[in-house]
Structures are given as structure tokens and as C-alpha cells.
Amino acid sequence: MLKRAIRHFGATTAVTIAMLYATSPSASADGLNGPSGGAYETSSGGIVVSAGVPGSPGTSVPGGPSTPGGGGAPSPFECISTSTTDNSGAQETVLMCCPAGNEELGMGNCQQVQVTPPAPPPPPPPPDPGTVAAQAESQISLPSPVLEKNPSSFGVVNFPEWFWVDASIWHPVSTTATACNAGGCVSATATATPSSLYINTGDGSGITCNGPGTAYDTSLPETSQSTDCSHTYTISSYGQPSPDGNPNDDAFSLSATITWTVTWVASGAASGSGSLGNLSSTGSASLRVEQIESVISGG
What we know:
Blueprint: E1 2-3, H1 11-23, H2 25-29, E2 38-41, E3 47-52, E4 59-60, E5 66-67, E6 74-85, E7 91-99, E8 104-105, E9 111-115, H3 129-138, E10 148-150, E11 155-156, E12 160-164, E13 173-181, E14 184-200, E15 206-209, E16 230-232, E17 252-268, E18 272-287, E19 289-290
Parallel strand pairs: 11-19
Antiparallel strand pairs: 1-8, 2-3, 3-6, 4-5, 6-7, 7-9, 10-12, 12-16, 13-14, 14-15, 14-17, 17-18
């Protein structure tokens, strides 16, 4: 004999048990899934399983019509649960369901059903490394170039003008971003490396330099210095906008743009590497260019 006890379940468990009885072959064999069967939760939180009871047989009167059998009546069951651990360490739950309404439940009238919990869902994939790398790229702070030139006060038509930017900014710049979810954490580092310098000379031309340019050293002779970042103006800046409003200061508007090549590498729950294209940083300046005429006078 088994003392009656009711296991208190939540509403979700009640639905699970109802589905179990609807699909358990052994439960159906003992009437736990009759035509009026089902499961419902009692006011105290217990689970009552109602199984259909076979209807009464019909009768036949000689010389008269047969009468149909009676319909099945619901028969409630009360269930208790026990938990066990198998050899692999997995937790198992066993339900013992017996006819309700008796203080002593007869084992012969009870049905034992093993409940197999659903497998947990697989963890989500970790954050995408490329997406984390793009986030790191968005956080890169690039220095703006300051354009230097010589002659510095004004340029001269048909005389080479040297350009350069501060060489101290010509180095890689990196940032790292990290993203986590239930699948793990991924860290990605994006690195921007300067690759070229483009100078818009303001007269409709431009020059591309492979590096920051070479600073002109006024302490050395001009013939002992060289650069790949110079431009020779063929016209003056007369008629161009004046930075200070003075018509005598008409100047070409210049700009210096550094192109940065961005690469990334990621590690953690997922890894990878690649390229994110290019970034750029720009600085502006102005240059007045004068036309100097040579005057030869004879004595």
C-alpha cells in the first residue's frame, strides 16, 4: 500500500504531464488515456490525471431494438513523483499515478511512468568576430595631420614648394572591443596603419606621398636635400579667397589627407582576422603664391 501524497507542480508541469499521458503507451494500456481522460491542477497545486473509464455494454431485448452502451465516465488519478540518478549521473523523475479518493492507494491500481526531461537547448553561437572588429574600428581615434610647408610664409611661382606632416603621427593606431553572450566572449583588435599622404595643392592639382614627407632643414643647403612631396605652382593665388579678408592675402586652400589601412584580429570563443578597408584623417591650410618678376636695369 502507498500513502497518498500530492506533488505540487506549477501550471507548466501540469501541461507537460498531460502531454505525457497522451503519448505514453503504458499509460494508455491501463486506462490513463481514456476518451474522457485529461489532467488538471487541483486548488492545492497537485496534479489530478483523469482517465476515461470504459462505458457500460449495450443491451439487446429479444424482438426489440438494441440499446447503446453508456459513455465512459472520468476517473481522476493523483500522482506523486520521485527523483533518481542513473549511472551516468543524469537526473530522472518517476511519476506514480493512482486512482484518487482513497486514503490508502492500492499498488495494483497504480501506473508508474518515467518522465524524461527535454534536453536543454544548445547554447547560442558566440558573437561574430567581424562584427566585434567593426565595433573596435568605430572606436579608433585618428590624429589630424597639420600641413607644414617651405617656403612657409608664401610660395613663389615656378619655385618648388615642400610639404610634409609631423612624422610623430605616422604610426599604427589600435583599439580593442569585447562582446559577450551565452556562447562566450570575443575580443577583437582593429589596427589602422598610415599608408599614404595626399595633398590637394589648391590650384587644381594634387600630389601623393608615400610617407609623411621630408621636413625641410633650413640649416642645410638646398642641393643636399630632396623630397617626393613637393609641388611647383605655375600661377599665383591672385583672385583666390583671402583667409583674413585682405585682398593682398589671396591664397590657395590646401588640404592634407592621410589614408589608413585597417586590419583586425579576434580571439576568444571565436577567432578570425581580416581587413576592414580604409579610414582617413584630414587637415587644412592655405598658401599665398606670388608671381615675382625679374627686372634688369642697365647703367
